[in-house]
Amino acid sequence: MEQAQKTMPRKKYANIFLITGAAVFVFGLLFGLLFYTKKVYDLPWYLCIIGACIAGYGAYQRNNTGKLGEEVCFSRQQSKAFFLKYALIFALFVMIVIIAIISPNFLQFNVCLDILSQSSIRLIIALGICPTILIAGTDLSAGRMVGLAAVISASMLQVPTYANRFFPNLPALPVFIPVIIAILVCGVFGMLNGLLVAKFNMHPFIATLATQVIIYGICSLYFDLPPNHSQPIGGIRNDFTVLAQKKIGGKVSILIPIAILVTVIMWFVLNKTIFGKNIYAIGGNMEAARVSGINVFMTLIGIFALAGILYGFGGVLEAARTAGATNNYGEGYELDAIAACCVGGVSLAGGIGKISGIVVGVLIFTVIQYGLQFIGVSPMWQQVIKGVIIAVAVAVDLSKYKKVLWH
């Protein structure tokens, strides 16, 4: 039996959002200019941003009537699908509101910038691990590659006068040389992951678990070379640390536009290139992809090589951000990245996932960590909350996509 549907002219539907958005924007603007108090911090300006977004959605609906249809249909099934589709955004909004009620100074723009800055490197790593999950696999070596890249780049970019220099006789190299070396080394290990999966048909879990151990061992051996002998690497050059510590306009971390650029590139790769479409095809059905003429072998190697390059880039930025490195850098980063992807809607069954979902997933976990610390919640409870969110997200994912996780 078909459910009864209600319809509304799309222009009327669009006008509702346009008017609502304009009202929220004007309210926020007046509130900020005429009635601003320190108790609400930057709430009025957030209202302006929210109002502009709502109005922008209305404008999109109005300007694309021909493409979207003259009428908007409403039904219980469509409403349920809508809330499921945007459940992450609703959850993120609710968390922010709750934390802001408990501690209103959470509404400061500086806090928002700190959250975005802390999310940046995590997002780059999650974007690298995303394609490996899209093929119904994973990558457990991500964190150790981050540590390896951090150690390699930092060891070659110390100031000449530093007492415990890793390479005492190494001349001052241009910054880009150690950076490229670190990224390429991680790319090679990524290719090794891809070779193990593609050539020997290993499950990515086992293949990347093996390389995780190998990479950590190699990184530790390198880190223990004399005269360093496993001492934390410090004395990093300013022309390297500026890559992650520079503030644009004195406030905005350079990591934020870097992460945005990487996000745009990965969106383009996954959505506008043959390589990206092949990734989704392999994740949907590897055998069908092979029969259809897709070079599964080279695509798998490309997926893990790309992932390694992004991990290496993240490790370089981590070393620049902290102005140092040890062989334990990046420990556990892969678990946070996998969790962010799963919460962001990247299906463990493969073939389904969006870049926008990963961005929201990373933000959710950063807001959890930063926000709960902000209001003084015990780190132990933070882990409990984080675990519950992961379990619920994966349970919802498995209920939506009942497939075998690895073909």
Shape annotation: globular
**Helix content bin:** 55-70%
User: Could you tell me the radius of gyration in angstroms?
Assistant: 24 Å
Q: Mind summarizing the main beta sheet?
A: 2 strands, antiparallel
Number of strands: 4
Could you characterize the architecture of this molecule?
There is one protein chain. The protein has 2 domains: 1-85, no CATH class; 87-400, no CATH class. 70% of the residues lie in helices and 3% in strands. The protein is built from 17 helices and 4 strands. The strands form 2 sheets. A two-stranded antiparallel ribbon has the order 1-2. A hairpin with a 3-residue loop joins strand 3 and strand 4 (252-253). The longest helix is centred in the C-terminal third of the chain and has 27 residues, at 296-322. The chain starts with 5 loop residues before the first strand and ends in a 7-residue tail after the last helix.
Relevant terms:
mainly alpha; globular; disordered C terminus; two-stranded antiparallel ribbon; single chain; 407 residues; two-stranded antiparallel sheet
